Amino acid sequence: MKHVVRFVAALCLALAIPGVASAQPDYKTWYLAEGSTGFFEEEILIANPNGVAANVSIQYLVPVGSPTPALKQITLPATSRTTVKVNQDITIHALSAIITSDQPIIVERSLYWGGAGRQGGHNTVGVQAPQMEWFLAEGVSNAIFDEFILISNPNNATVEVQIDYLGTDGIKDIDTYTVAANSRRTIHAAVDLDSRFGGRFRNRTFSAKVKSLTAGNPIIVERSIYWGGIFAAGLNPGGTNEAGVTQLSDTWRFGEGYAGGTFQTFLLVANPGETEVTIDTTFYLEDGSTTVDTRTLPANSRTNIWVNAEIGPANAKAFSATVKARNGGQIASERAMYWGNFREGHVVAGVTAEAAKWGFAEGIEDRFNGVAYDSYFLLNNAGLTDGSVKATFMLEDGTGFSDTFTVAAQSRYTLIAARYPQLSNRRFSAFFESSVPIVAERTVYWGAGYYGGHASAGVPLPDAFVVGTPAAVSGPTVTSIAPAYGTTNGGTDVTIKGTNFGMDTTVTFGGVNAQTSQVIDAETVVARTPGHAAGAVAVTVTTNGQNATSPTNFTYEVPPPPPPPPTSGTTARGAPVAVYCTNFASNGVCNQPITWPFPQNAFGVINQLAIERRDLLVNSCHEFGGNNNFMFEAVRRLRTATGSNRWGLNIKRGNQGLSQDIVTYFYGPEGTEMEGDVRVYIFDIIGGHCGNNPGPNWEDVTEKTRAGGTIGRWTTAGQSF
After folding, report:
1. What is the residue-wise DSSP string for 619-647?
2. What's residue 80's pLDDT?
3. Please, which residues have CB within 8 angstroms of residue 174's CB and are 6 or more apart in sequence?
4. Beta strands in 500-538 (DSSP E)
5. Termini Cα distance of the chain
6. How high is the pLDDT of residue 287?
7. DSSP, residue by residue, 261-297
8. Which residues 6+ apart lie within 8 Å of 607 measured at CB?
9. What does the alpha-carbon distance between residue 30 and residue 288 come to, in Å, rounded to a whole number?
């Protein structure tokens, strides 16, 4: 999919920005120069911290010649936030956006890649005004990292742009680029730098100064870096993005940093001046101790500070940092963090000043679409006085809450969103108000082992900025349960739908705790019924100390005697098993014996199919362009061999799409509507799936699936067998 990058790099975007924003931001207009909905999944995050609703407009800016999208209008309730899923609005591969509001708001943009699991992503705060000059402290051009410098020209005239490339050893190269009126140009470092400078910047790190040479025509600049084969299937993709900074400073502050475990942290410092600069970098640890690194940067150069080496393995821990140039020297600085052997990373430009108030549009905690997220807020108090900090969290429905804590002097404080059950399975914005000036950042990590992550500095807010007080967080609601009946023995898996389910959600049936409760997301819980006397009972869900009762009772029924084996298909199936256990106690006693019907080993059916249709078996892996034809034929043959239509496909983990190697057998009462039911035995019929040599298999993974905390559902997947 490398052609996607080439396509993006060649695009010119029609911007039509109506003039330069005021030097003093009003937080009502935001620019997002980067964006893509082809290979990427784009989200625009908007927070409304006001006590009144905000009317927001989004203008999508698309390639010249493409149909102009309609202006998107959104009304955000007071003290709320929203997630705009751009892919649902527009299918153009590359785009920009202008967000305007009648109230002060905070805007961020996230890009994700890698399908439903989101194997990577990056996040950047919007820009509030174009500027004449931008600085990028980080930069790299080699066989591993693929860098793009993104330049937007929001003016009605062509702009000539100069880029100064600054190497680590003081080598400086200057080049100019023409950016057409109302367009965007992408500089692909691996191509442009090699061709323009004869390979002098190949396999090098560098900084860049990007400047509009056309008087009165400011621009917007961002930078993206990708690695690990982001556009190649099967590889581990990573990427970072950050907008440039618009001024140099003698001091740069960072709230986040971690050196230890698999985390590698680097501070990137650029000196674009004509004289050398000495810098002192102070690391603030969570225990209140500090460490200082001092070094000199030649003129027109940049340096990497590998923090892991500076604070030492014995002190491997979280930190904040301040980079300060002596004697008024002017520098730019960013921080890059990588983890998992460079599995993923994020980068943040430093901030030049502390502030008493900070705002974030993005926050996400726990389960969304089967993926687990964690948000962290990193606060640095470099002063000599402890700070009392009020954190206010605002949810998408306009509710929220506040908390107060202390950030000790000259220390770094980590606020973990998971400490608040009100945020579980929710997306939110966050605002911090401190009694002393601080620096605030946020990181988000997701997936098993944190295979994905991004970070952003907060938006510093003036003291006069008013943060509203949200209403109390709403409790859970229950809208439906399915199935609404089961046996007095218990063991029925009931899917409960509703809203505001946190990961601490518990379920009772007639006042008795469910055997198990699995929270899928904020709207779905699967609970296994306890044993109970026959009759109708209430189903109650409890989240964060608040209760909700289903509008439909669950009815316990005395189980009927097991039906006899069917007369057809006995030979193919073999003799029925007398007892099969689906729930063992710790002492080995069977709590839930199941008699007929239980399917016998059908390896012979699958093996014969694998022999006859090896082509379907090899082509069964979706990740390599395959399909479900082997699965469809397997279900058809199982139904024919056993004389039963109880065989079906499987929705893996209950909500993540069709399994590629699992069939299910429905064991509920005959004549019951089977579609979507969780009363299934689960069988893996392909060994080595998605490998080089898949083969036929027959493995009962029912208990293994349940023990892993997941569920399956019977489905025909729209097929007629």
Report:
1. T--GGGT--SHHHHHHHHHHHHHHT-S-E
2. 98
3. 162, 163, 164, 165
4. 506-509, 512-513, 516-521, 524-528, 535-537
5. 36
6. 83
7. TTBEEEEEEEE-SSS-EEEEEEEEETTS-EEEEEEEE
8. 696
9. 37
Among all chains, which residue has been given the structure tokens 């990961």? 503
For residue 61, the one-letter residue type is: L
DSSP letter (8 states) at residue 342: T
pLDDT-derived band at 573 (thresholds 50, 70, 90) equals: very low
Taken in order 27, 33, 37, 41, the sign of the CA dihedral is: negative
Contact 661, 686 (CB under 8 A): yes
Gap between the Cα atoms of 477 and 525, Å rounded: 12
Cis peptide before 593 (omega within 30 of 0): no
Beta-sheet pairing, 485-487 with 554-557? parallel
Residue 1 scores a pLDDT above 50: no
Predicted local confidence at residue 503, as pLDDT: 95
**Mean pLDDT of the residues in the chain:** 85
Give me the residue spans of the domains in the chain.
Answer: 248-352, 355-461, 477-557, 578-715
Show the tokens assigned to 397. Answer: 């429905």
Identity of the amino acid at 448: A
DSSP 658: B
pLDDT at 253 over 50: yes
pLDDT digits (tens, 9 = 90+) for 174-193: 889 998 887 778 888 777 76
- Residue 323's alpha-carbon distances to 255, 278, 386, 461, 466, in angstroms, are 12, 10, 21, 22, 31
Residue 592: the pLDDT is 56
Fold: same for 248-352 and 355-461: yes
CA distance 42 to 35: 7
- Distances in Å between the Cα of 575 and the Cα atoms of 515, 601, 647, 668, 698 are 32, 10, 18, 20, 17
Question: Does 480 score more than 70 pLDDT?
Answer: yes
Selecting from 2.60.40.10, 3.40.50.2300, 3.50.50.60, 3.20.20.70, what CATH number does the domain 477-557 have? 2.60.40.10
pLDDT, tens digit, for every residue of 303-359? 999 999 888 766 568 888 999 999 989 999 999 999 988 899 999 999 999 999 999
For the segment 127-145, what is each residue's pLDDT rounded down to a tens digit? 999 999 999 999 987 778 8
- As a whole number of Å, the CA-based R_g of the chain is 29
- Structure confidence at residue 585 (pLDDT): 55
> In whole angstroms, what is the distance from residue 712 CA to residue 656 CA?
10
In angstroms, the CA 620 to CA 54 distance is 49
Q: Which is higher by pLDDT, 561 or 101?
A: 101
Cα 522 to Cα 501: distance, rounded to the nearest angstrom: 4
**pLDDT digits over 664-715, tens only?**
988 777 777 888 888 888 899 998 888 878 888 888 888 788 777 777 889 8
CATH topology of domain 248-352: Hypothetical Protein Tm1070; Chain: A (2.60.290)
Q: How far apart are CA 321 and CA 562, in angstroms?
A: 69
Q: What is the pLDDT of residue 561?
A: 52
At residue 635, φ and ψ (nearest 5 deg) are -65, -40
Residue 88, both tokens: 């649902």
Q: 709: closest CA among 368, 365, 370?
A: 370
Kindly state the greatest CA–CA separation across the chain: 94
Contact yes or no for 172/198 (Cβ under 8 A): no
Q: What is the CATH number of domain 355-461?
A: 2.60.290.11
Rounded-to-integer distance, Cα 330 and Cα 514, Å: 63
Q: Looking at the predicted structure, is the pLDDT value of residue 277 above 90?
A: yes
Mean pLDDT confidence for 123-129 = 95
Interior angle at CA 344, CA 339 and CA 346, nearest 5: 90
Question: What pTM did the predictor assign?
Answer: 0.76
Query: Which three-class secondary structure state does DSSP give residue 193?
Result: helix
73 contacts 57 by C-beta, under 8 angstroms: yes
